[in-house]
DNA sequence: TCCATATAGGACTGTTTTAGTACGAATTGA
DNA sequence: TCAATTCGTACTAAAACAGTCCTATATGGA
């Protein structure tokens, strides 16, 4: 299914919620309420996002989290990378070694090509766009829209 | 990591091996030898590819498998779909229901957008291209190459 | 006709990954 | 000092996945 983990999905929901009110601090409990993601999971994800430098944490009473950069400067690819590590659909694209059949595998370069295209698609969507409702125009020509955004 | 299962990876290796000699029948044992994918796995995958109509099977003595269409007419997306089902990186893009927070999730359309872009990337690479060695030009401008192929 | 060789289909098992939970430590504001 | 909150880490349960095996069926040749 070429899947993204649920956690990465939740993470984008959470960080999109933060992007809706930049500057302002939100604690884990409040975010859980707003997004309906279970509280322990919210905590876990925010820690990951913090470690990746996407959100800032303020400890102590009346602490919370807030976006570390402008919503326009954070992409979906950043969020996925924070939660799931480097974006690469095949093993061999990640390490370069150890897929077991690499010596026979003539297609390594083709995979790399596909990976790059996917990465560009993910890097062309920012939190600002995720937070904003889609326009009819975007929905009608999704590929064109993405490729323009990515300046392909 | 936005990963593709190993099986889908192996499947493309196998079908690329078939694409290298279209028309000609290859049995599971021979393919296992040529690709170094374990024999039982080869069997399993070829069955899946057959059910999806990507390869033709000939039973009985001196039987084997062969590509059902021209290598130019089969895309990486076809292969992935045959092994892993519909291509969609989030739950909500598949069924439309049941991601648990769908009512609050304002980003559904954005995910759909990203899905479409990824699908196009995968549909723009054919077995003929996978089987052929990459040119230097493709490697230098991967995104441009893919987008041209997809006619974005 | 019989036998060796192949695929078809399904059931099963072990392993790995993932999601989710829990708890003590550290930090801050009142 | 106390209460609220994040930090770090370890743990557990569940699901997905890779891989194996067995039996039935089809085919070609001796």
Architecture blueprint of SSEs:
The structure is a homodimer of 152-residue chains.
Chain A lengths: L5 H15 L7 H8 L3 H13 L3 E4 L5 E4 L8 H9 L6 H4 L13 H16 L3 H5 L4 H5 L1 H8 L3
Antiparallel strand pairs in A: 1-2
Helix pairs in contact in A: 1-2, 1-3, 1-4, 2-3
The structure holds a DNA duplex (30 and 30 nucleotides).
Short description:
Helix content of chain A is 55%, strand content 5%. With 152 residues, chain A is mainly alpha-helical. Chain A has a two-stranded antiparallel ribbon with strand order 1-2.
What is the chains' assembly state? homodimer
Number of strands of chain A: 2
Helical amount of chain A? 40-55%
Write the H/E string of chain A, N to C: HHHEEHHHHHH
Separation of the first and last Cα atoms of chain A: 26 Å
Radius of gyration of chain A: 18 Å
**Large-scale geometry of chain A:** elongated
Strand order of the largest sheet of chain A: 1-2
Separate helix tally of chain A: 9
Mean pLDDT of chain A: 79
How is the main sheet of chain A built? 2 strands, antiparallel
Which ranges of chain A are low-confidence, i.e. pLDDT below 50, for 5 or more consecutive residues?
94-104
Query: Biggest interface, and residues per chain?
Result: A-B, 61 and 61 residues
Structural class of chain A: mainly alpha
Please report which band the strand proportion of chain A falls in: under 5%, 5-15%, 15-25%, 25-35%, 35-45% or over 45%. 5-15%
């Amino acid at each position: 299914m070429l899947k993204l983990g649920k956690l990465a999905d939740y993470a984008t929901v959470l960080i999109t919620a933060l992007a809706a009110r930049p500057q302002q601090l939100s604690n884990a409990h409040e975010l859980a309420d707003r997004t309906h993601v279970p509280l322990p999971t919210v905590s876990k994800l925010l820690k990951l996002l913090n470690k990746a430098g996407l959100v800032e944490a303020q400890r102590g009473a009346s602490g919370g989290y807030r976006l570390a950069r402008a919503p326009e400067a954070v992409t979906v690819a950043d969020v996925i990378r924070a939660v799931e590590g480097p974006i690469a659909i095949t093993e061999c694209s990640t390490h370069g070694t150890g897929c077991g059949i690499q010596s026979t595998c003539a297609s390594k370069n083709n995979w790399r090509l596909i990976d790059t295209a996917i990465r560009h698609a993910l890097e062309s969507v920012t939190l600002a766009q995720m937070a904003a409702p889609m326009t009819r125009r975007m929905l009608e020509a999704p590929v064109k829209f993405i490729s323009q955004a990515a300046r392909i």
